[in-house]
Amino acid sequence: MKTGAVRHGFEDVRPLQAVPQLWKLRPRSRLVRFTLAALALLVVYAWCAGDIGFDEMFTARRAQNFERFVGTEIQPFELRAEPFSLMRHVEWAWDLGVARGFEGALATLAMSILAMTLAASAASLLLLFAARNVATRDPFQSLETAGARGLSWRLVTATTRAVLIFLRAIPEYIWAYVFLALFGPSAWPAILALALHNAGILGKLGAETVENLEPRSLSALRQLGATRAKIVVAGLFPLSLSRYLLYVFYRFETCVREATVLGMLGIVSLGYWIQESRSRQFYDQMVFFVLLGAVIVFAADLFSTFVRARLRRA
Amino acid sequence: MTLSRKQPSTSVSCADPDAWTRVVAGSAAFELHSASVRYDARAALLEASLVVDPGESVALVGPSGAGKTTLLRLLNASLTPSAGSVCVDYKNLAQLSPVELRAVRARIGFVHQDPSLVPNLRVSQNVIAGALGRASFFGSARAMLWPRRTDLERAARILTRVGIGDKLFQRTDRLSGGERQRVAIARALFQDPSALLADEPVSSVDPARARDTVALLCELSRERGLTLVVSIHDIALAREFFPRLVGLRAGRIVFDERTQDVEAGALTDLYALAGLERVETAREIER
Amino acid sequence: MKSSAELPLLARPAWIGPRGTAILLLTAASIAAWFLLDLTPRALIPHAGGIEVAKRFFAGALQPAFEYESEVPPGTRPILVTVLEYARRTVVFATAGMSLALVLGIVLGFFASSAWWRGEHIGGASRTGRFLARTIWPFVWLCTRGLITFMRSVHELLWAVLFLAAFGLNTFGAVIAIAIPYAGTLAKIFSEMIDEAPRDSGLALRQIGSSPITVFAFGLLPRALPDMCAYAFYRFECAIRSSAVLGFFGFPTLGYGLAQAFENLHYHEVWTYLYALMALVIVVELWSGAVRARFVA
């Protein structure tokens, strides 16, 4: 940028303060600077600490492995001898789908739907105890103007929030792993695992939604003499439902994605067949099931986007 | 400024041989020749003709929806008329190449109704952004991320001139509405413009600030010899500060006079029955 | 006050809007799912062995192990050091994967957004610019969309499984397995954030004659940047969880130690690992929350 050609350089104006002096006075956030520095250091450390076998990745053995995997193993076993024909491949995939894949995919979807319903119901109760404008002595005021909330109420929100953070800090896969040991093989461990983790997330998001509600309409109901429960049903519920449902359907998409892998623990779903073909080293079938999983995740994604668009318009 | 090698259109009288000398003096001249703008079926501007001489201060008055914003966007070359022509510095904009058009825009400072700043950048960056119209991408990146000392000093002087010299390195979203408006003006000045266009610059600030802002714009244009066209809702302010008023209603220019010649009746007519007028315009379009 | 314009609104049944439909849909689907999966509540009552496991498991929650539960050969590192080592590796893989995903996600996110080529071209878009916006860019946009959808439709564990099958066990595979789906997700969300960011500042830059790329970089992108940072930080938290779970597939992260302890029925040790994982996740969550509050306020 040429500044020499400027006509109105405003040289006639004496600046209030010299630029370096203003620069010294600039507002800056220690937290943000610390965060940037810490994350940069962490990234450098992660790549340099030597835990990542970078050179070990590019050896002749791995190249051979890869060549074999792509060249032969992922081609359908039955068709390897024949010349390539798309029709035969489609036929092969269809047969495999009918035999195992489609049922597994359907079970995966069913598990995530049930898990979502459970999570949404559980979280909708939990969030009432986690929202600071509901769980307080004088409910439904704005968070800024509300006075002391009372020790016991503080304890209630703190406990609920701790439970929620506990639920979502543990990944679904680990929950499922634990529940499988407790309940034995059925669809329940997967459903419960998905439901618990998502309840933790939905509870947090829902509580934030409720806390951000416009307090006036709620406190107006309060002044009419409505009880806490009545306000929740008549005011809070209808006001926050749209947003909450948005979150539910947003999580549904992630839930389906997660459900495809939970089967790998031995719960009948798509993941089960992936694990089974993997352990028998039928990589052609494994790749097919992985792709089938991608298809249902994509379908769930489309569905959830569609529903959320409709909800947003309402 | 690159002067177009193309000759101005002969169909419209943009070419005034003596006018070139006035361009060099540093302020822009604007001409509209029966320009109309239509969005779909609705006419936002109907056969508007207007001549603004270099260094002149003009206020556009009229109710909302009268076509003030459309007119300003025509002058700024960010809108092309569906009929008629627009000349800036005696050049017909319809005949300029995209590169030349961008050069024209780079010389016209535009102050928006809402300040249109980037709230999470520092004031200095928002001001220096005024020069991005003339910089290459890498020049822009350099100016935004590692600004030159000279640019910063110029930004500091301009900010001091508009009254917020101490805010140079503040975050823009921490400023008040009036201060943000001044940042927007500073950004326009940093462009080193030959004209300032302002679209309702005071609609988002309180009355006292509004008066200050308009006064500042007028002072600046006088002091730096800039052509000033301001659209303004508040007739009292317009009468107080501008020597020339252009009244718009329903997409038409209804008067264009020196302020002392504008009768009070004409102003009240401007705002009265605006709805009725719009219905008539709609009928006209149907015809 | 009934005007004719209001009547169609009144005629619509008020009790079932999109929200009601969504809830009904979910309920009906759940009932169908119940029968499809052949569920019985009885299966929720743990078998006798299960109850025993449950008792011991939850007892472990109160007393996480600070010592190994069984005899270990002398010279073995103390369990806390082992757990810390696994936690460190969990963070290392998450960070490496996430940094790769961030670079990929930003590049792909740029091509998956439409704000920089679609939208109002004020007057002076050059002829080549208009040509590109009509032909090449939509094609690039569509391809990128397809690519990122595929990348994130396959779960990171499945990517890991694919890499295991293709290359054999290799730690770099774990990094890539995290990076690919996370890059896809980041790209999708980034592009949406860019496209939904307010356009006024970009428009102002365009009006003073900036080139489209400058408008994008200094008018649009800064508006979306705080949200993008907050989201990336949230994904980092998810990456730590994913990295931990990758341990179940033989990578040396928290999940590996956890699975081992679980299989040896050392439930107190299991809880040591669980608490370590929770501590990591909670620290990152609180940290990102503080940074986000800083950005928003």
Descriptive overview:
With 314 residues, chain A is mostly helical. Chain A has helices at 19-24, 30-48, 54-57, 60-73, 86-130, 151-169, 172-183, 188-211, 215-223, 228-262, 270-279, 283-313. The radius of gyration of chain A is 28 Å and the shape is extended. Chain B is α/β, with parallel strands linked by helices. Chain B has 2 domains: 1-107 and 194-287, Rossmann fold (3-Layer(aba) Sandwich); 116-192, no CATH class. Chain B contains 11 helices and 10 strands. The model of chain B is unreliable at 1-24 and 282-287 (pLDDT under 50). Chain C is built from 12 helices and no strands. Chain C has helices spanning 7-11, 18-36, 48-62, 79-112, 127-134, 136-153, 156-167, 171-196, 200-207, 212-245, 254-263, 267-296. Chain C is globular. Residues 1-11 of chain C have low confidence and may be disordered. The A-B interface holds A 1-3, 6-11, 13-17, 19, 22-23, 25-27 and B 26, 122, 131, 134-135, 139-140, 142-143, 148-154, 156-161, 165-166, 168-171, 174, 189, 192, 224.
Query: Which pair has the most extensive contact?
Result: A-C, 78 and 73 residues
Cα-atom radius of gyration of chain C: 26 Å
Give me the strand/helix succession of chain C. Answer: HHHHHHHHHHHH
Query: How many E strands of chain A?
Result: 0
Whole-number mean pLDDT of chain A: 86
CATH superfamily of chain A: MetI-like
Low-confidence stretches of chain C: 1-11
The name CATH uses for the topology of chain C is: MetI-like fold
Mean pLDDT of chain C: 85
In whole angstroms, the N-to-C terminal distance of chain C is 43 Å
**What distance separates the N and C termini of chain A?**
49 Å
What is the CATH topology assignment of chain A?
Answer: MetI-like fold
**What would you say the CATH architecture of chain A is?**
Orthogonal Bundle
Give me a quick take on this structure.
The complex is a heterotrimer of chains A (314), B (287) and C (297). Chain B is built from 11 helices and 10 strands.
